[in-house]
Amino acid sequence: MIISGIDRLAYALQGRKITQKGSKYIDLQKKLIFARIATPFDVYIARAYIISIFTALPLGLAVYLIFNRKFSALSGLETLIVILALATLLGLGIYNVILFYPGIMANIRKHKIEIALPHTVALMHALSRGNNDIIFFFEVIGKNKKIYGEVSEEANSILLDIRVFNQDIQSALRNAGTRTPSETFKNFVESLSTVITSGGNLDSFFLSKSEEYRQRALDENKSFMEMLGLLSEIYVTGFAAGPLFIITLLVVLGIIGGEYFFILKIVVYILIPGSALLFILFLSSLIKEHESELNEIVEPDQQDEDAIFQKARIRFNTFQFMKDPLLKFIDIPETVLYLSIPSALLFFFLSTYKFYTMEFNQMVYEIDDYIIFAALIALIPYSVFVEIHARKISKIVSSFPDLLNRLTSFHESGFTLTKSLNELQLSDLGILNSEVRKMNLDIEWNGSVVQAFKNFGKRVKIITVLRVATLLESASSMTGNIKETLSIAAGDALTNKMLEEERKTAMKMQIIIIYVSFFIFLYVSYSLVSGFLPQIPDVTAGSEVTGIIGEGITFSGIDKPMYERIFFHAAILVGFFSGLVAGQIGEGAPQHGLKHSILMVLIGLGTFLLI
To answer: Which of 4-8, 15-19, 78-82 has the lowest mean pLDDT?
Structure first.
């Protein structure tokens, strides 16, 4: 716990009064504990008071200056009252946000605990086959935070109670139940405490809980897919079809008469990309809260390596890059941006420098096509390697349960685990064939199957594989027979595979719907530009000439090339950002939607080139 100078000042001003009213803040105290915010409640509330007081007046003044035109008719006293009122409202808002923050963080921790819990219980089930040392189970979980996430924090708190506060395991488990934001984890540790106290069968307990949590994960995944489908339909209706209606309406109103072109530009250049980005951020936070990051890349810890090994690793990576540079781009697709972005900027400069002496509007009209071409040059290589990388990970995750099942089958038929791995080289495991060969080489060099799996996990750096490697390493330290451990690991990996395949299947239709909405937008835009605008007499924007459209309806002057350009930009922006949304919905990350974005942008570009 770190107490800053601001905290000391805040506590000196308000802290003692807040401490005396501690019963009013029981809920906040619980949320601070659940969120693992190591600050006493009275210091936290006093800090909120000080921050809101010192920031309220500057923010109120800033809001007043931003909307100065709205308050231009006010007198001096009225202006002061407005500024003070704005400061008060903003101060109250900031104060309440600070107090609300622990609840948000507690809720995030709750979801992360419940995501990792099925895998944690699978580990404990495997360990219980050879030993009933619950403290050792929590030691394994606690030191593997990258794999077991927030459950590791809960495990470390249990170990702290046992080792520092000298509590027995039952008391430590019950205390953990009072400190966790997850009701599921609370029920688990309380049930575990009861089983330990009564001398029950831990193996049966962990087996039943593992099956329960696995089925719950599958059921929750189905519900989450339905919610994602609903959200994608909301996006199509509100953020794709909605702007089309607004743009069409503004164009018609602008032709009939009125200053609507500025609003049209706000819709195209701010509303379309802004709403898509906000939607992506919302989906991203939602997905992280509800989904297991089974394909997440996790870098193994290298801080324990000495300088010699670190230098050797650098030399080896340099040699590998010189030998096969594409492999580096596949493993880390962002690396290719160091080449593609400078290439795109060079192309853009060489193609557009001759337009820089033109008037601004004319220059924009001339260079905007080159902006699109430059963006494509920068993003197409990145998109290609992102796709290759994603497919590589997907194939590894898909093939991994099969590897474990075949290894278990060989082991059950009487082969040793070493011999089973050797026999596995004759099987066709697709992308994992090379990894099986490397594992056999590891065994030849150091004779350890567990070390071979650990090295395998470090090479692929996928959390599913690292989880199995940790499970095998921990189980083998208790018993030489890890046949049951392999079966449990295979079941855990298969559950992850099922969740991922179910998601991809469910989201394919939503991606198709996003494509359909884009084609509708493109068709309407094309029809307006090629069929509607040419029927309007050619009048320069801002001129005083008016004409007649039908009986009694006049039109004001419009700049038809500018309207055509607006529709072109709208189609490109809708296509690009719809692709990113499709990637977020379908594959959990916007970069996976770049392939959809590029395809839609090319289709939109080709369509308007035909006009």
So the answer is: 4-8
Label residue 553 by pLDDT band (50, 70, 90). Answer: very low
Phi-psi region for residue 293, left (φ > 0), alpha (ψ -120 to 50) or beta?
A: beta
In this structure, which long-range contacts are made by residues 96-101, counting pairs with CB atoms below 8 Å and at least 24 apart in sequence? 98/44, 98/47, 98/48, 98/51, 98/52, 99/28, 99/45, 99/48
pLDDT in tens, 455-470: 787 777 777 777 777 7
Q: Rounded to 10 degrees, what is the CA torsion of 500, 502, 506, 511?
A: 20
The amino acid at 501: E
Q: 3-state DSSP call for residue 397?
A: helix
Residue 234, Cβ density class (10 Å: 0-12 exposed, 13-18 middle, ≥19 buried): exposed
Give pTM, 2 decimals: 0.71
Q: What is the pLDDT of residues 577-597, one digit of tens each?
A: 999 988 888 887 889 899 999
* Res. 147 pLDDT band, cuts 50 70 90: confident
pLDDT of residue 294: 43
**446 contacts 285 by C-beta, under 8 angstroms:** no
**pLDDT, tens digit (0-9, with 9 covering 90-100), for 315-373:** 766 666 676 777 778 888 888 999 999 999 999 999 888 888 887 777 877 888 899 99
Residue with tokens 């509100």: 238
Alpha helices in 324-359 (DSSP H): 325-331, 337-352
In sequence order, what DSSP letters do the residues of 455-478 get, joined into one string? HHHHHH-BHHHHHHHHHHHHHHTT
- 423 vs 384, 428, 433, 437, 482, CA distance in Å? 36, 11, 12, 10, 17
The one-character DSSP state at 335 is: G
Q: If we measure between CA atoms, which residue out of 47, 48, 81 comes closest to residue 64? A: 81
User: ∠ CA(453), CA(459), CA(465), 5° rounding?
Assistant: 50
C-alpha dihedral over 444, 446, 449, 452, to 10 degrees? -90
Q: Is 185 exposed, middle or buried (0-12, 13-18, 19+ CB in 10 A)?
A: buried
Cα gap 358→370, rounded to integer Å? 16
Of 158, 176, 181, 184, nearest to 27 by C-alpha is 181
Contact (CB, 8 A) for 507 and 524: no
Asked whether 529 and 608 are in contact (CB, 8 A), the reply is yes
Name, in order, each residue with C-beta under 8 angstroms of 355's C-beta and a sequence gap of 6 or more. 362, 363, 366, 367
